[in-house]
From TrEMBL:
Listed SUPFAM superfamilies: alpha/beta-Hydrolases (SSF53474)
Gene3D superfamilies the record matches: alpha/beta hydrolase
Pfam families cross-referenced by the UniProt entry: Abhydrolase_3 (PF07859)
Keywords recorded for this protein, A-Z: Hydrolase
UniProt KW Hydrolase keyword: yes
Keyword Hydrolase in annotation: yes
Domain spans labelled Alpha/beta hydrolase fold-3: 100-307
Protein name (Swiss-Prot/TrEMBL): Alpha/beta hydrolase
Length: 334
């Protein structure tokens, strides 16, 4: 039985939950324009879409709210340098908190200037924080561990140079959506295990966490919504190749593999009820709680993967944004 068949069987028992009323029509339109599921042949298409949607300097500055610069900094040992996009509040006085952004794109697409950066900048504006967005190498040309090691190298550089940039190295959030959520969670594990920088929190938005793709929701949404179960299989296969789903996959690549989730920074974890990644996000939060750790979990009813980026004016999208900001504010005040 091939992997796609197995995830379909896992979800045969029940139909997917209904979409939220404000999201149902937009998801139909989105899927009418976006070929699904992801396949290796569609990776160039995804990259073209990412490139066409890259944010300009003007858009990132948000009317002068942020000052921006790009820095080329050392990558992992023996690997190419990486780019960090540094967005500082123009009116900042003194060191400010930082959102360290790892972009999404299913491990195969996206950039440090992808449109999801807008949400991070909006949250940073409310918090008086900076955003630092890292450009990492993409699979399948650069398989695991290249992406997470690039992100870790950028995080270490940020921690070392933060004060000179007007940033507070003790108040850094790891934040990412989808594949970026996997990388943010992997960074939290790497930083713990290597005694590296100590993030103040991790914001895991609709995160890809487990390459085994065996949850009920992976089957239930095998061909439903945005970033369905079959696309998820394709993304993990691009990153891990023949290792996907087998023994020996690192928890830094697939954080759901981690045997020990203790000693991590507080986590904000969110998923939609109508997405393939739903159940692994719920499981990850539960396992953090079982170690005595801190996690806040949101399951947005009727929501598909990354819904707030695609339909920002929906009531549920505004609620998701407000929940992230409120949680981050509480963490900073703690």
């Amino acid at each position: 039985m091939n992997p796609t068949t197995s995830i379909r069987h896992a979800g045969l028992q029940a139909p997917p939950p209904p979409f939220d009323a404000e999201l149902a029509r937009p998801i139909g339109r989105i899927l009418g324009e976006l070929p699904m599921p992801l396949t290796p042949e569609l990776i160039p298409d995804r990259r073209r879409r990412s490139t066409s949607g890259r944010l300009s300097d003007e858009r990132i500055r948000q009317g002068g709210t942020f000052e921006i610069e790009e820095r080329t900094v050392p990558g992992p040992a023996g690997a190419p340098a990486i780019i960090l996009l540094i967005c500082r509040p123009a009116a900042a006085r003194g060191p400010v908190p930082v959102i360290y952004h790892t972009h999404g794109g299913g491990m195969v697409a996206g950039s440090h200037r992808s449109t999801e950066l807008i949400g991070e900048l909006d949250r940073a504006q409310e918090l008086g924080a900076a955003v630092v967005s890292v450009e990492y190498r993409l699979a399948p040309e650069h398989p695991d561990p290249a992406p997470v090691e690039d992100c870790y190298a950028g995080l270490c550089w940020l921690a070392e140079h933060a004060e000179g940039l007007g940033l507070d190295p003790d108040r850094v959030f790891l934040s990412g959506n989808s594949a970026g959520g996997a990388l943010a969670a992997g960074l939290a594990l790497l930083a713990r295990d290597r005694s590296g920088p100590r993030p103040v929190g991790q914001v895991l938005q609709f995160p890809m966490l487990d390459d085994r793709c065996g949850t009920f929701s992976a089957g239930q949404m095998a061909r439903v919504g945005l970033w369905d179960g079959e696309s998820n299989l394709a993304g993990w296969t691009a990153l891990l190749g023949e290792r996907r789903g087998g023994p020996g996959v690192s928890c830094y690549a697939a954080p759901g593999r981690a045997e020990d989730l203790s000693g991590l920074p507080p986590a904000f974890i969110e998923v939609g009820s109508v997405e393939a990644l739903r159940d692994e996000g719920i499981t990850y939060a539960s396992r953090i709680w079982q170690t005595g750790g801190e996690a806040e979990l949101h399951v947005w009813s009727g929501a598909f993967h990354s819904f707030d980026e695609w339909v920002p004016d929906a009531v549920v999208s505004k609620a998701a944004h407000q929940a992230r900001v409120a949680w981050m504010r509480r963490v900073l005040a703690g």
